[in-house]
Design goal:
- With 145 residues, the protein is mostly beta strands.
- Helix content is 13%, strand content 52%.
- The chain has one domain: Lipocalin (Beta Barrel), CATH 2.40.128.
- Strands 1-2-3-4-5-6-7-8 form an eight-stranded antiparallel β-barrel.
- It is globular.
Length: 145
């Protein structure tokens, strides 16, 4: 347990040093436009909804925005599970994806819905919902790598 806490602490400090010290409050270079395609990372704090309270890093790669098609992958690093994302729609600026955990399904909820909204060109608001849309049970800001 102590080893996991140490690993998480090192990850959090490293993430802060890489992303937290960015002095550009505009979230990108002048003239840079928001693009959801790419790799997004952050630290999730999950609490409520009958789930145990957990803190863990995630990495999500989006490589396509074609409705009904595979859109990318998601990795819950400390939970040691990962899966695929399917793009559903953009509804008033909220991108909706469905998640299917493919690796180590017993470590994560097998299916979920993820809603994403642009915060700025380098950050998104990321929410995890039950597959039926209830929730959100997790809300976090992810930054683009």
């Amino acid at each position: 347990m102590t080893r996991n806490i140490l690993k998480l602490t090192v990850f959090l400090i490293t993430t802060f040093l890489i992303y937290g010290c960015d002095s550009d409050s505009g979230g990108g270079n002048p003239g840079e436009e928001f693009d959801l395609i790419g790799t997004w990372e952050g630290i999730v704090t999950q609490a409520g909804g009958g789930y145990p309270t957990l803190i863990f890093p995630i990495s999500m790669e989006i490589d396509s925005l074609q409705t009904g098609k595979r859109a990318g992958t998601i990795v819950y690093l400390q939970l040691n599970c990962s899966g695929t994302l399917t793009y559903d729609r953009n509804s008033s600026g909220v991108y909706v994806f469905y998640e299917q955990i493919d690796v180590n399904q017993g470590n994560c909820t097998e299916q979920g819905r993820i809603d994403i909204e642009e915060t700025n060109v380098r950050a998104i608001s990321w929410e995890w919902h039950e597959i039926d849309g209830s929730g959100p049970f997790v809300t976090v800001t992810l930054t683009k790598r």
